[in-house]
Here is the input.
Amino acid sequence: MDYSLVVQLCCNLVIWINLKAGLSRNTTNLVLRALQLIISTLLHLIQLALLAQGITAQLPPITLPRDIRTAYQHYSQEPQILRTPCCPKCYKLYPDLESTPEVTICTGKVSRNSRLRCKEPLWRTQRLGKIRKMVPKMYFNTQKLEPWLKWFLSRKPINDHLEETFRKPAPDPMDRMHDVQDSP
Here is the structure.
């Protein structure tokens, strides 16, 4: 028996409660574990009911991800995030900062003709166990437009509204427009 649809539905549910209901990652992970327990118990009860009827059946287990991030990886489209190092004070972008570690302070100016520079440190030390590593203090995060637009336009409500626009009869050019969809 293939339970991949059940796993996908459970993952979609926890992704929805994480995104729409705003549940934290920890709480969403707890919901995943609760769903795992409920489904495992249900399968066990079905197996016992079949055994009581004289039917011996071994139902395969359903294994849900233990972390919401795994659910996102397998059953949702992760956004493509561009992380560009920037100054934490004036937000000047440094796209090549990680490949040019000799730049240690911000060279940003208040205005084009200003002589004053920001001079904010751009690096901080991060500890990874016993290892210390220099990393940019701040990143400016953006999402790639093309994949986001593809995702946005493929959503069912958006797709339905776009199709509705094309099915709508052409308005009379003499009528007053009340909406962008009334435009000839």
Q: What stands out?
A: Residues 12 and 89 are 39 Å apart (CA to CA). The longest helix spans residues 25-52.
